[in-house]
């Protein structure tokens, strides 16, 4: 039973690592990390818009790591547009930080796959006690979760400290100026947080596999040897 229990834990850890890999890939390819409402400040000031009229100047914006879109409301109806972060927009952003976020997620993808592979190896073979064993799996999960946490923290810093949404909203806007009324993190951002949490769960599962449970032994009956048995 202990062997089956350990194999079950390694199989579960491998499934979690693969799920984390899928979550990161989906999050990176989806253009909805952040959504918000933008006010066309220039248009509202031109007509001295009051509170009821400001609705005509409030648009929407959404974006991810590679692309996004917005709806401009400048008093003449909504105008939809889409944009790509690379290659032009990234020059107006904090280029180093944005590229580091993407690199951190790519490294996390690699470590998630490494963790998945070694979990499978330990599930079908005798676990090694070196870097390939439970300690190694914990290391890969710690690195994967750590890089995801760095990417999430970097994105939050770009949004809150470097005004990422405002920079994107005003990209190539020569006439109108937009201000951010509200912004919120969307599902793709929280998917990355869930991916890091999945690796944290693995860090709890793998040490359990190292526990040596006592084996259940059946008590053998003592044989009664008599003198007649010795003679024959």
Q: Could you walk me through the main structural features you see in this protein, from its secondary elements to its overall organization?
A:
A hairpin with a 4-residue loop joins strand 3 and strand 4. The chain has helices at residues 2-29, 41-46, 95-124, 134-160, 164-169, 187-209, 227-231, and strands spanning 34-40, 58-63, 67-73, 78-84, 178-185. The longest helix is centred in the middle third of the chain and has 30 residues, at 95-124. The protein has one domain (2-210): Butyryl-CoA Dehydrogenase, subunit A, domain 3. The protein has a five-stranded antiparallel beta sheet with strand order 4-3-2-1-5. The protein has 232 residues and is an alpha+beta fold. The chain is elongated. Helix content is 54%, strand content 15%. Helix 1 (2-29) packs antiparallel against helix 6 and helix 3 packs antiparallel against helix 4.
Short recap of the structure:
This protein has seven helices and five strands, in the order αβαβββαααβαα. It has 232 residues and is an alpha+beta fold.
Secondary-structure class: alpha+beta
- H and E order: HEHEEEHHHEHH
**Structurally, how many domains make up the residues?**
1
Dominant shape:
elongated
Question: How widely separated are the two ends?
Answer: 42 Å
CATH level-1 class? Mainly Alpha
Enter the CATH topology name.
Butyryl-CoA Dehydrogenase, subunit A, domain 3
Q: For the report, how would you describe the main beta sheet?
A: 5 strands, antiparallel
**Strand residue percentage:** 15-25%
Based on the coordinates given, report the CATH architecture.
Up-down Bundle
Low-confidence stretches: none
> How are the strands of the biggest sheet laid out side by side?
4-3-2-1-5
How much helical structure, as a percent, in the residues? 40-55%
Number of helices: 7
C-alpha-based Rg, rounded: 29 Å
Question: Using DSSP, what is the number of strands?
Answer: 5
């Amino acid at each position: 039973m202990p062997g089956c229990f350990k194999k079950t834990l390694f199989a579960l850890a491998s499934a979690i690592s693969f799920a984390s890999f899928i979550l990161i890939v989906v999050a990176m390819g989806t253009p909805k990390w952040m959504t918000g409402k933008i006010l066309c400040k220039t248009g509202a000031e031109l007509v001295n818009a009051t509170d009821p009229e400001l609705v005509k100047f409030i648009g929407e914006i959404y974006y991810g790591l590679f692309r996004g879109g917005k709806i401009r409301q400048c008093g003449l109806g909504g105008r939809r547009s889409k944009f790509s972060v690379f290659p032009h927009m990234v020059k107006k952003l904090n280029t180093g930080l944005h590229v580091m976020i993407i690199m951190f997620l790519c490294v996390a993808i690699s470590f998630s796959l490494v963790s998945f592979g070694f979990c499978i190896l330990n599930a079908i073979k005798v676990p090694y006690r070196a870097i390939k064993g439970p300690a190694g799996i914990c290391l890969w999960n710690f690195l994967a979760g750590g890089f995801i946490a760095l990417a999430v923290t970097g994105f939050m810093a770009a949004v809150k400290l470097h005004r990422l949404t405002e920079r994107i909203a005003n990209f190539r806007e020569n006439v109108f100026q937009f201000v951010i009324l509200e912004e919120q993190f969307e599902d793709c951002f929280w998917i990355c947080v869930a991916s890091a949490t999945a690796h944290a769960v693995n860090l709890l599962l793998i040490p359990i596999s190292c526990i040596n449970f006592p084996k259940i032994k059946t008590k053998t009956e003592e044989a009664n040897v008599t003198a007649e048995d010795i003679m024959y």
